[in-house]
C-alpha cells in the first residue's frame, strides 16, 4: 500500500520514467532486432525496483525525519530532531540538484545512508540512523536509490542548517566515533534460524532501526553492547525493554497483542503508542505487509531476554480506584494528592473516567505500560505533549497540557507532578514518584548523557585524559619490567 504521507507519486513518476525509457528505446531501436522487447523489460524492471524502493523507504521510515511537521514537502528536510547535543535538522533528500541529493550517485547515496558520510565528505551526526542502515543489503540500497531518484519530487529549498555548540560542531569528530561504533557488515542471515526469523531480524535491525530507540546508550551515546533492546531514553520519552524477557520485556505478550500494537499502536488493557512510537506506527509499521509484521513478531519473541529487575510486568500493574469515585461523591478523601485529585477530575476524568477505567474510546490508566513501569517519563510526556496517531482512517487524540496547550488547558510543572503522582498511586506503580523538577527535566528533553554534561570541560578533560593515558602506559611498562620473566 502506498502511504499518504509519502506520496509525491504516480503521475509524476510516470512523467519522469517515461522519457528515460523512451530515449532508451530509440537508442536500442537503432541497434536493431532485440529492441522492442528489451526496452519493455527495462521499463518494467525499473518500475518494480522503484516500487520496492518505496516500500523499503516506508519500512525504514525515511519520511519521519526528513519531512518537516505540519505539511512540509515530502523528504525536503527541516525536521528538527531534539538531541542531548542540541537540535539537529534533517536535510533535503529529494532529487533536487541544488538543495537535495540530485547529484548523488548510487555509491554516494549508499555511503551517506550506510556510513554517515555526505557526498562532500562531511560526516553526518548519528541522528541519521546509519549505524542500523549499515546492515541494508546492496540490492535494497539499489531499490531505495531508484525510488528517491525516479519517484520523489525534487524540492528546491534548503532547510534550516544544524548548528551545534562546540565541541559537537566539529563534524570530523564523528570519524573517531564511527571507528569505534559503526559496524561495516551488511545483514547476514543466521542459517540456524528460519527464513521468517531472518526477515524479521533484517527488518527490525536494519530498516526499522528499532534498536536506535530501544537500546540504552553508553556514555559516548553509542548503543550499549550486550543490552540490545533492553530499554533506552530518547529525549523526553522512554522506549521500554522489548527483549523477550517475560516480565521486563514483551515475552509475556501474545503474538496477537504484538501484531496489533505494531499495526495500530493500541492494545486494550496493555499499551498505547505515543510520541516517537506513534510516529513509527503511523509512518512506517502500519504500512508493512502482514507477513513482514509477523516476521518482526517472530524475531522479537526470540531475542535474548534481558531482565531489568522488575517483579511484575508493567502491563499488569494497578486496578480501578473506587477511592477516587468515593472522593468525588464527597467522602473525606486522602490528604495526600489533594491537588492531584483536583487536576485529575478537572483534566483527565472526562475521558479516562473517575475510576481510571476508561471506556471504549479512552484507555484505562491501570494495566497500562505508561503507568506500570519503573519510570514516569511516558506518563509525564503524554500529559505534556498529548498523543496523536493516525492509523488507516482512524485518528487517536489526547490533548497536550504542557507548553503547547492553550492557556486554559495548560498545567504547571507542579500540577503535572501532582496529577502524575495521583495516577501512579491510584492506578499504576505507586513506588514511582514525580517531582516538579522531574517534570521540568523531561520537558527540557530528558536526562543528559555524561558526554553532554561534560562538554564545557571538553578541553581540560582532553588534557586530563592524555596525561592519564601517558601515566598508565608508563606504569604498565614499569610493572612489566619489574615482573620476573615467565616460563
Ligand atoms: C531518525 C531520523 C532519520 C531517519 C529515520 C532517516 N534520516 Fe537521513 N538524515 C537524518 C538527519 C538528522 C540528517 C542530517 C544529519 C547531519 O546534518 O549531520 C540526515 C541526512 C541524510 C543524508 C545526507 C544528505 C545530505 O544532505 O548530504 C541522506 C542521503 C539521508 N539522510 C538519507 C536517508 C534515507 C534514504 C533514509 C531512509 C532509509 C533516512 N535518511 C532516514 C535523519 C534521519
Ligand atoms: C523513534 C524511536 C522508536 C523506534 C524506531 C521504535 N520504537 Fe518502539 N517505542 C518507542 C517509545 C518511545 C515507546 C513507548 C511509547 C509509549 O508508551 O507511549 C515504544 C514502545 C514500544 C512497544 C510497547 C512497549 C510497552 O511496554 O508499552 C513495543 C512492543 C515496541 N515499541 C516495539 C518496537 C519495535 C518492534 C520497533 C521496530 C520495528 C520499534 N518499537 C521502534 C520508541 C521507538
Ligand atoms: C479528551 C480525552 C482525554 C483527556 C482529557 C486525557 N486523555 Fe489520556 N488519553 C486519551 C487517549 C485517546 C489516549 C490514547 C489511546 C490510544 O492510544 O489508543 C490517552 C492515553 C493516555 C495515556 C497512555 C499513554 C501512553 O504512552 O501509553 C496516559 C498515561 C494518559 N492518557 C493519561 C492522561 C492524564 C493523566 C490526563 C489528564 C492530565 C489525560 N490522560 C487526559 C484521551 C484523553
List keywords for this structure.
single chain, 487 residues, mainly alpha, Cytochrome Bc1 Complex, Chain D, domain 2, 3 domains, two-stranded antiparallel ribbon, 8 strands, globular, disordered N terminus, binds heme C
Can you describe what's shown?
- This protein has helices at 10-31, 35-59, 62-66, 106-115, 130-133, 138-150, 173-181, 195-207, 211-214, 255-264, 275-284, 290-300, 322-328, 338-352, 369-372, 377-385, 413-427, 436-443, 450-453, 458-482, and strands at residues 80-83, 86-89, 232-234, 237-239, 266-267, 271-272, 387-391, 394-398.
- By secondary structure, it is mostly helical.
- The protein folds into three domains: 4-164, no CATH class; 195-300, Cytochrome Bc1 Complex, Chain D, domain 2 (Orthogonal Bundle), CATH 1.10.760; 322-450, Orthogonal Bundle (Cytochrome Bc1 Complex, Chain D, domain 2), CATH 1.10.760.10.
- Strand 7 and strand 8 (394-398) form a beta hairpin.
- The protein is globular and about 65 Å long.
- Residues 1-42 and 329-335 have low confidence and may be disordered.
- The chain binds heme C (3 copies).
- One heme C binds at residues 266, 271-272, 274, 347-348, 350-352, 362-363, 365, 368, 370-371, 378-379, 382-383, 387, 396-399, 401, 419, 423.
Amino acid at each position: 500500500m502506498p502511504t499518504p504521507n509519502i506520496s509525491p507519486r504516480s503521475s509524476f513518476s510516470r512523467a519522469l520514467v517515461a522519457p528515460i525509457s523512451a530515449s532508451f528505446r530509440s537508442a536500442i531501436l537503432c541497434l536493431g532486432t532485440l529492441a522492442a522487447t528489451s526496452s519493455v523489460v527495462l521499463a518494467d524492471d525499473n518500475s518494480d525496483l522503484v516500487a520496492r524502493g518505496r516500500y523499503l523507504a516506508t519500512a525504514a521510515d525515511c519520511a519521519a525525519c526528513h519531512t518537516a511537521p505540519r505539511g512540509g514537502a515530502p523528504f525536503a528536510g527541516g525536521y528538527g530532531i531534539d538531541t542531548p547535543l542540541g537540535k539537529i535538522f534533517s536535510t533535503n533528500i529529494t532529487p533536487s540538484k541544488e538543495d537535495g541529493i540530485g547529484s548523488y550517485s548510487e555509491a554516494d547515496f549508499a555511503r551517506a545512508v550506510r556510513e554517515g558520510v555526505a557526498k562532500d565528505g562531511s560526516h553526518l551526526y548519528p541522528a541519521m540512523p546509519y549505524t542500523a542502515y549499515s546492515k541494508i543489503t546492496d540490492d535494497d540500497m539499489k531499490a531505495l536509490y531508484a525510488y528517491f531518484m525516479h519517484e520523489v519530487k525534487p524540492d528546491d529549498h534548503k532547510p534550516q542548517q544544524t548548528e551545534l555548540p562546540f565541541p559537537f560542531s566539529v563534524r570530523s569528530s564523528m570519524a573517531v566515533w564511527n571507528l569505534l561504533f559503526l559496524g561495516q557488515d551488511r545483514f547476514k542471515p543466521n542459517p540456524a534460524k528460519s527464513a521468517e526469523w531472518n526477515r524479521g531480524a533484517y527488518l527490525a535491525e536494519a530498516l526499522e532501526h528499532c534498536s536506535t530507540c530501544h537500546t540504552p546508550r553508553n556514555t559516548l551515546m553509542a548503543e550499549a553492547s550486550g543490552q540490545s533492546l533492553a530499554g533506552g531514553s530518547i529525549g523526553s520519552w522512554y522506549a521500554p525493554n522489548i527483549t523477550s524477557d517475560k516480565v521486563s520485556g514483551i515475552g509475556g505478550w501474545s503474538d496477537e497483542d504484538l501484531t496489533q500494537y505494531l499495526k495500530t499502536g493500541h492494545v486494550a488493557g496493555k499499551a498505547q503508542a505515543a510520541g516517537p512510537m506513534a510516529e513509527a506506527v503511523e509512518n512506517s509499521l502500519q504500512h508493512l505487509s502482514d507477513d513482514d509484521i509477523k516476521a518482526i513478531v517472530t524475531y522479537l519473541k526470540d531475542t535474548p531476554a534481558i531482565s531489568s529487575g522488575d517483579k511484575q510486568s508493567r502491563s499488569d500493574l494497578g486496578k480501578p480506584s473506587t477511592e477516587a469515585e468515593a472522593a468525588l461523591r464527597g467522602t473525606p478523601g486522602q490528604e495526600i494528592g489533594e491537588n492531584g485529585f483536583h487536576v485529575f477530575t478537572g483534566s483527565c476524568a472526562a475521558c479516562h473516567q473517575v475510576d481510571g477505567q476508561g471506556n471504549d474510546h479512552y484507555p484505562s490508566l491501570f494495566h497500562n505500560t505508561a503507568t506500570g513501569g519503573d519510570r514516569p517519563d511516558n506518563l509525564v510526556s503524554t500529559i505534556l505533549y498529548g498523543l496523536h496517531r493516525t492509523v488507516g482512517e482512524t485518528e487517536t487524540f489526547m490533548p497536550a497540557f504542557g507548553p503547547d496547550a492553550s492557556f486554559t488547558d495548560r498545567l504547571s510543572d507542579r500540577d503535572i507532578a501532582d496529577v502524575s503522582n495521583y495516577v501512579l498511586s491510584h492506578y499504576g506503580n505507586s513506588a514511582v514518584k514525580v517531582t516538579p523538577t522531574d517534570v521540568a527535566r523531561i520537558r527540557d528533553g530528558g536526562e543528559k548523557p555524561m558526554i553532554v554534561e561534560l562538554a564545557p570541560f571538553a578541553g581540560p578533560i582532553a588534557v586530563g585524559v592524555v596525561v592519564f593515558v601517558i601515566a598508565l602506559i608508563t606504569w604498565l611498562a614499569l610493572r612489566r619490567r619489574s615482573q620476573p620473566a615467565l616460563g
